[in-house]
Amino acid sequence: MKFNRLRPRVVVVTGAGSGIGRAIAIRFAKLGARVVVSDIDLDAAQQTAAVIRGHGRLASAAQLDVTEPEAWDALARNVLTEHGYTDVLVNNAGILVAGPFLELQPSDWEHQLAVNLMGVVYGCRAFGAQMVERGAGGHIVNIASAAAFTPTPVMSAYSVSKAGVKMLTECLRLELGPKGIGVSAICPGVINTSIMENATTLGVDDDLIERGKSLVRQLQQFAETLPFAPMSPDLVARAAVRAVRFDLAVVPVRTEAWLGYVMLRVAPGVNRIMTRPFSMKTLEKVGARLLMPAGRT
């Protein structure tokens, strides 16, 4: 770990129309950076930019499909022309494709990896080239997941994509570090976002999926009532800022992420069985217990 003298002036964040991406964009804007808010949903990107400008900070919106390398190259050129060189790129855009391995089709794998892994590859390539060209440093933050180092049933495609992001990050640290460019992987645990609501789920009973999503919504609503915001996307935003400030390689976020990260090293066998699935009935009982009004038993 080292202290990074980089002071972000221009920051590009993908998938910043909501959730973690929006929180990261707002956090960097508060620190004085001009933020380019990109998302495949231009309206959502514009809403985030409007929130930032409403606080007297600088932001602009751009539409970006991270699966298209040409779109990445165009965005990099446009940002350079309009705002100058990018100091920090945050690759946040991601999706979840879930389901038993044998139920996933090749197209499901292609879709998952195109967004979560290749989208990060294209972003690192487009903006990394500019950072090298400038010769004045820079930083790339890749949002991975605790799934990168904790095997999870029925999430093989997602876990592989995030493990790929983590390994890409560590490879790029070796290549780009000597050029003054930092690269960090943020690995969040359970965070209050809409990724589960928007997930593509295959080979699982529809009623089970809906009950699972309902439970997630209830737990998120319960978390929002707590004073310490245990599942807030801002936890990831703070981790992203910290990763840039101290040039950190891998930053787990939340207890379950740290547990998986540590157990992978000290007891990998235990790590492999930690996520054996509970039955939905058990999960519902846990959720009901957490959500039960005080004084009831």
UniProtKB/TrEMBL annotation:
SMART domains registered for this protein in UniProt: PKS_KR
Tree of life domain: Bacteria
Pfam families reported in the protein's UniProt record: adh_short (PF00106)
Positions of the Ketoreductase domain: 9-189
GO molecular function terms attached to this record: oxidoreductase activity
PROSITE patterns in the record: ADH_SHORT
Chain segments annotated as coiled-coil in the UniProt record: none
InterPro entries attached to this UniProt entry: KR_dom, NAD(P)-bd_dom_sf, Sc_DH/Rdtase_CS, SDR_fam
Gene3D superfamilies to which the protein is assigned, alphabetical: NAD(P)-binding Rossmann-like Domain
Keyword vocabulary terms for this entry: Oxidoreductase
Family annotation (PANTHER family): OXIDOREDUCTASE EPHD-RELATED (PTHR43391:SF12), RETINOL DEHYDROGENASE-RELATED (PTHR43391)
The family this protein is said to belong to: Belongs to the short-chain dehydrogenases/reductases (SDR) family.
Name used for this protein in its record: Oxidoreductase [Nocardia brasiliensis ATCC]
Organism: Mycobacterium shimoidei
